[in-house]
Amino acid sequence: MFFDAARIIEIAVTAMGLLYLWWEFHANARMWILGIIMPAIDIYLYWNKGVYGNMLMSSYYLLVALYGLLVWKGLTGKNRQGRGDDLPITHITPRYAVIFCIATVGVWAATYYWLTTCTDSSVPALDAATNALSIVGMWALARKFLQQWIFWIVYDVLTVYLDWTKDLPFKAAIHVVYATVAILGFIKWRNMMARA
User: Fold this and answer.
1) Which backbone phi and psi does 164 adopt, to 5 degrees?
2) Predicted pLDDT of residue 76
3) CA–CA separation, 195 vs 88, rounded Å?
4) Cα(39)–Cα(45) distance, rounded to whole angstroms?
């Protein structure tokens, strides 16, 4: 049956994803609540379908969402205010820029190695690049860095190309929308920083 429980859950998660994107665009910490719920549901769905790689990625997204909520609300680390104040949008510091570059290359290399030695991937370099950008992009988002949008812009542009070349035009189209939102999000966050 097309509209079984799993399909309804899939549709609900997609709708939550759009709301998540809206809240991210507006730098609203409520996005992290959905950022916890969506991957938790995905973990369940992927486990039941035997898609363990995506289940592991969803587990990572769940952990980053928990961390992001704590950081954005000032409940952890140097940002601990104890008042639940929202973390301001900032630029990536030189220290984090180096860490993010090393992490991106490291994740790309590990993913590329896995794809070329353990799978029959026809696009291992590009697939590894999108994987690395999404992992590091989530980390940058959790720190509320303006430049997190750049990770998503590059990710979405590469994914549009990847989906188009793999004859997935509808997936490519949704990533064109995501890339557009990421560009507009970068502009909006930059303006929010200027006003703050």
Assistant:
1) -65, -45
2) 66
3) 11
4) 9
CA distances from 162 to 93, 133, 166 (A): 31, 14, 6
User: What residues pair up with 90 in beta bridges, in sequence order?
Assistant: 145
Name the nearest CA neighbour of 176 among 158, 162, 156: 156
Please report, for residues 88, 157, 171, 180, the alpha-carbon distance to residue 175 in angstroms, rounded to integers and kept in the order given: 28, 7, 6, 8
Strand spans (E) along the chain = none
8-12, 16-20, 77-81, 147-151 — which is least confidently predicted? 77-81
Residue 40: partners with Cβ closer than 8 Å, 6 or more residues away = 58, 62
Is 50 buried (19+), middle (13-18) or exposed (0-12) by CB count in 10 A? exposed
Q: How confident is the model at residue 182 (pLDDT cuts 50, 70, 90)?
A: very high
* DSSP track, 42-92: HHHHHHHHT-HHHHHHHHHHHHHHHHHHHHHTT-SGGG--SS-PPPPPBPP
Are the CB atoms for 151 and 183 separated by under 8 Å? no
CA gap 58, 44 in Å, rounded: 10
Residue 84 has pLDDT above 50, yes or no: no
Sign of the torsion formed by the C-alpha atoms of 170, 105, 138 and 27: negative
The average pLDDT across 43-62 equals 80
**What is the rounded average pLDDT of the residues 78-90?**
64
